[in-house]
Amino acid sequence: MEQGRERQRIERTERAARRDQTQRKCLSSARQNALTTNTDTDIISTLPDTLLSHILSFLPIRDSVATSILSNRWRSLWTLVPILCLDQREFTNKEEGDQKLRFVDIVFRIWTLRNAISNPTPLRKLCICWHHNCLPFYVDTWLRATNLRDLQQLFLSILTSFKTPFELPCRLYFSTKLVVPKFAGDINLNPPPACALPCLRILGLRGVILANQDSLSTFLTASPVLHYLSLTLFGINLEHLDEFSVTVLVPTLKILYLDWKVRSPTYKFHINTPAFEYFCFTGFLNGDYVLENLHNVVECVLQFEQRTSLRIEDYAKKSWDFMRSLCNVISMELSTITAQILCYDSNHEDGPTFYNLSSLKFFGGISSEWYVWDAVRLLLYWAPKLQILSFEKAHLLASNLRPKRLEEPLDVPECLSSHLTTCHYKGFDGKEEEMELVRQILKAAKVLKSMKTTVAGYLDSKKLCVCKELRKFQRSSQNCEIAFDEGRFT
């Protein structure tokens, strides 16, 4: 009996060996060699330097340098990476007392090791983030140790200790290979009149200090192929200038993010960009502005800040005038605060008509004191061809505006009768004001096909009740389907 079982076991083993041998014959020679290689062999170290350095470029510099202790093969591999990101937060959480030079010591050590080899790989991207006890002298030293002629991307975000702004090296303004510079913080932008940046395509400036009234325009004029600009200006950065006007006259610019945190009416902005396609504006409209040649803008995001010295009725009129320059857009996003401001314009019959607008989105919060349907209906009135309407919950600064109801009822918006087919509410909480908004849309939209609500996961306990309540609402469109989905929101 036992001999029989042993014989069966041996036969099964032999059959498995023959089957494995047959399968190996079907594999390539490289795969067969890999299967017969000792599992303890370091295969990754046999890869070429170019591939390994590319892999290391995705790691933080701290981890990349740490690979140098693996073996002699890895000792200098990290120096071949053409990307160097030096972020103070990565090396130290907090620097105080006698540790104030710790970040400096670490960075100098990295530079020393990197330059110790012969013919180090030229840097293509350099990032320096130093937000605590930054000393501009050291940043200047590190930049001078970099071959700026080969640099394609430069990110600088610094806050100096004594509010002494950092001066960019003059030769940086004449770089023939720089493509993406992004500067933030205590950095003095002071380009010489003859500067030239022929390859610069993407520019980011946040809270930098403009040396004079012509600093920004000179920098933009020196960038003949610029197509993306992100500009954030604070009033405190302009206090040393009696008058100032941001002038964006760039014929190649396609995308602009303008964050205008300037409350004083003394400062102005002027935008003239015939190739413009995307425009995101956040901030105040206290001062004068000029918007020209924006007929090619197809997508815009508007978030007007309400804290203003103007009467709210005058501010609302300026907001409508601002939007009038964007009448050709196809897609528009408005903050709920912006929608509230627009309701304060008493002349609702003279608004701009957005004939090409097919998608409209409101983002922000809805107050229980605000009858949001008035603002939504007002915007729909000026978008006769609108097809997609969406709402997304977002945490914005609270509004202190007194709720404004429309004094005279508007005619039924044309889009509700013939074009609006899709509505999506993302971040639905089931609050009374949200339920009322959905109820009004279902009641008014005659060709609506889909009403989708995405609810937060924590509403599981009341989700069924909300669904039942929504399905009871009157629907003008018999083909409208109400769908529910779950999501996570911050």
TrEMBL record:
Pfam families membership: F-box (PF00646), FBD (PF08387), LRR_At5g56370 (PF24758)
Annotated TM spans: none
CDD domains the record matches: F-box_AtFBL13-like
Domain F-box: 41-77
Record region (Disordered): 1-23
Coiled coil (UniProt feature): none
PANTHER family named among the record's database cross-references: F-BOX/RNI SUPERFAMILY PROTEIN-RELATED (PTHR31900), SUPERFAMILY PROTEIN, PUTATIVE-RELATED (PTHR31900:SF30)
Protein name: F-box domain-containing protein
Source lineage: Eukaryota, Viridiplantae, Streptophyta, Embryophyta, Tracheophyta
